[in-house]
Design a protein that fits this description.
The protein is built from two helices and three strands. By secondary structure, it is α+β, with helices and mostly antiparallel strands. A hairpin with a 7-residue loop joins strand 2 and strand 3.
Amino acid sequence: MPDENYEKLAFYFDEKVPHILHVTTLLGISGVCGLNYVLKNKGTAWTVELKIYHCHTNQLPVTVAIPNEAVTYGPKERKASCKE
């Protein structure tokens, strides 16, 4: 969920949901956050801090600033986030 200023976004990952659904959802929500940030602040420069949590363990394996950093949540990050 984004914060009220559209500067931070928390995304919860569930390994039981198909990966493509997560990617599609994440791209859509982060794009909307960026657009809302631009509209609200009347500027074109935007950054959204994205935090990806594992929904069952609440582990936080990924924190990035988009669009400046690439989002990487591959097998290594998924495995690390599954540890209780």
